[in-house]
Every structure is written in structure tokens, then in C-alpha cells.
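Q&A log
Question type: sequence-to-structure
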Amino acid sequence: MRYILSMLAIAVLAVGISLYWISRPTLVSAAPPPPISATTLDQLPKERKGQVLIYGAYGFTGTGISELASEYGISPVLAGRNESKLKPLADSLGYDYVVLPLENNHNNLVKVLKHFEIVLHIAGPYTYTAKSMLDAVVEAGTHYVDLTGENHVIQAELDRDEEFRRANIMVMPAVGYDVVPTDCLNVYVADKISQPTQLTVIINGSYTAADGAQTSRGTLKSGLEMLGRPLLKRENGKMVAMATPELIHRNENGREQTLLQIPWADMITSYISTGIPNIEVFQVQDGQLPKWLLRVAQADAGRRVLGWMIDNFAPEGPSPDAQENRQTRIVSTVSNAIGETASAALITPEAYVLTFHSTLIIAQRVIDGQWEPGFQTVGAVYGPDLVLEVPGVSRTDL
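Response status: OK
Response body:
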């Protein structure tokens, strides 16, 4: 018996040490990397006009954007911190690449970015990666877009609006799914009535389901960052905390559905794009979100453990079949103080497929000179119809 108890104690201790090891904070060297070589800089474009840098190119989403770039007439340079992942992708596509860490690397980032008109920043979670890149684009004078859905990151970008204007660059967050379709749709319905005061968005990510429709590791880790922060909604023009997300049960075409309120990026982006003071976003929920997940995600050590599990066990992203066959549906409804309402729906292709296209469409717009200085949103600059340029998107008035 004593032997068994001893073995159990050793096993518990081993598990504890393992969890500590995988959940410990990652130490970042205080010393900056060495200066980037003149040889490397000489290989970068000499004239920045029309030049695109894709940072985070070898992740699931970055790879999809890199592979599609040529269809939009873009020949990017690929960048990231891991050469063993970056070089094979660049070689397979015939693009140049540059190895470029973000941490403590401001001077090298600026030197590289001065060779490019725009950087597509695809490396999240943006909680940890956005500021370094933004500091560099301001000094380099390079336009910036990213895919963040993290509200606190978008708010931090908005807070730097004047700084971006002085640098004469456009900073546009969230140029993929879901913000491109929701922002465009929200601008569309907001224009249908006078002085809308309430906006409700319902996202059904599995409108047409498909096997293998997994979420990528990068998206999961960004979502993890959001779970670890206060749940917010837009109320009377302000971001206010929710004690718990609202749940709505409804019958849709004979099917029972649960709508889960989510603190999505639209709370900021669509507020900027439409000026509507009250915004709620709901997701059609498949199954229940485990109650323990929120508690674990709100602890630093818990997020690190979950992040380690995502890195080691989550799929890279959806299967090719899911990307081809899955569709999403977004319904936006506005109302005003005198009782007028308007609704419309978008059907879109699979979320990552939309993101590949929308990111490159916006990059091409910037290259063509269609940009505004400062912090900007998709709907405000490019209007409600930009999303219709993505293959497979349709819009219907309800």
C-alpha cells in the first residue's frame, strides 16, 4: 500500500512539474538581435511602391494568403521568425523571404519595412505581436493591416489614430472573417433607416456544414486571449462589462438554436463605421461552452496551459473539403427610436477562404492608392460592397 501511495505521489508531483514547465512564462531575451545584414537588405525591393510584405506567412492563414497572392497580381516577400518553416514555403512559391523576429528588434523591423508599401501582419495572437509591428510601421511609413479580432488590440490601435495620421499611413485591423463581412453588411443596413440606434448581428459559422471544419491554431489562441479578458458589449456608445453572456433560444426554420452573445470586434469596428451606439453580436452555438473553460482561460497559468495544448494538439486548420463546401451566414438588423427596422443577410464561403481573398483585395486597394491616413475600418473606407468582390459572397435584403 505504501508503495502504491508513493507511486501516486510521484505521479502527482510529475504532473505538477510538467504543468508548471509548460505553463511557465516564456523568457524573452533583453538583448536585441544583431543588425540585419547589408546583403539581406540589398535583396529586398529597391522601390517600395507596390511592394507587399506578408509577416507570419507560414501559419495556416498566412500560407493561404501567400499562395493566393499571385491571383491578385501581388508578388510578396514572405517574413517570419522561423526560417525552417519560412524557407520551404517561399521556395515552393518562388518568393523571396526575410527572417525577422519581432521581440526587441525595432531597428531591424524599420529597416526592412522601409522597402515595402504595406505589411500584411498575419502573426497572432496580436496581444503580443501588434505593438512591435505598429511601432515599426510608424517610423518606416508603411501601411498596415492585420486580422485581429481582439477588442483590446483594436482599441489600442484606435488610440494611436493621431500618431498614424502624422506618419501618413493607414492602419486597418481585422481585414478577414468575420469583420469584413459584418462591417460591410452593417454599413449596408445602417444606411436603410434614419439614425439607427440598435444593431444586432447574428453569425452562423456552420450555415452549410462540412466535415473537417476546424479552427486554426492561430485563431484558437487569439480567441483564448479574448476569453481571458472582461466580456464587453457596446451600450449607449460605451464599452461596458457583461456579468455573463446572454443566451437566446429560438426556433429557426423548424430547428432549435441557441444564440450566444460574444464580445466580437464589431463592438469597435462597426461603431466606428456606423456610429450606432448599441451593438450586440450573437453566434449560433453548437453545443455548450464548458463553464470551466472561461475560469481556466481567465488565469495566466491556465491560458498558458491551454495555449500549449492548442500548439501541440489542435489541427492546423480546416480540411480542403471544408474550405470548398462550408458556408457561413450573417444577419444584421438595425432599428431606431421611431420603430423603423431593416435587415439583410450575407452568405459567405468558408471563413478562412474569405479571409485569404479579403486580405489581398484590401492590399490591392492600398497599392492602387485607395487608402485614408490614420486608424480606419473596412466599411468606412471601402463601403458595403467590398465584401461582394470575394468569390462566393451574396447579399439579400430580408
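Response note: Residues 38-172 form a domain with the Rossmann fold fold (CATH 3.40.50.720).
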